[in-house]
Amino acid sequence: MFRIALVAHDEKKAEMIEFAKKHQTVLSQCELTATGTTGKLVQQHTGLPVTALMSGPLGGDQQIGSLVATQALDMIIFMRDPLNAQAHEPDIAALLRVCDVHNVPLATNRQSAEILMAFVKLHIEGSEKNANRTS
Fold first, then answer.
1. What CATH number is given for 3-134 in this structure?
2. Lowest CB count within 10 Å: 50, 54, 79, 130, which one?
C-alpha cells in the first residue's frame, strides 16, 4: 500500500480536491496523510480516510518532513502556489530538501502529480493481476 502525503497551499486547495476526486479509486487503496486543512477538505469532499496533521504554517510541513525522514511516506503530492510568497517558506524549503535527501518522489504541480498517480495505478493493477494469477 502506497503511503501518500497531500499538501496544498490555500490558493491550490480547490485543485487538490478536484485531483483527489478524479483519483478517488486509486487513492482509496493508499494510506493518506495531509496537512490540516487540506486533509479535512479532501476527506469532506471525497469520503477518503485521511490522517490530518497540523496546518502547514503551524508545523504540518515539518511533520510531513519528519515522516519522510523516518521513511513513513512513499511520495508527496504538493499543490504549491508559485506566484504568492508564503510566510512559512523556510518550512517548505526544508520539506523539498528532505525529499531530495531521502529520494522521496515529490510532485509540486498538477501534471507531475498526474504522473505519480499513473505510476501508483499501474502498480496497484499489476499487483492485483499477480494476486489473481497465484490464487
1. 3.40.50.1380
2. 130
